[in-house]
Amino acid sequence: MKRLTVLEEEVMDVLWGTDQALSSQEISTLKEGLDANTSQTLLRRLRNKKFVEVVRIELRKKSLTRIYRPNISESDYLKSYISERGMKSLVSGFVPDHLDDLDGYTEDIVNTIKHKAEELRNN
Q: For this chain's UniProt record, which GO biological process terms are given (predicted)?
């Protein structure tokens, strides 16, 4: 799955945050600082990447308006991103840059992993 840009993710966050399909104007209204033209451009790119689809076209204020909804859930997107980067890459971001900082750090990580595994077993 392709990775989204920061602005594309912001548009997807708006769509993921509602159970309704939205127009580019509605998205730009809900996302502060995003104008309608930029919203339209981002939606076109998201449609080309198959992240959104046009569910209908409506007549609004004498013009035709596309109404969009996501094709992928936020959790599925995040899962694919994590699996693409790999767990090793993800975990390495939490490791300190200096060996001096490792004292006790490894033990904390192991304990956290054990605790989470226990929680998952109990659920």
A: negative regulation of DNA-templated transcription
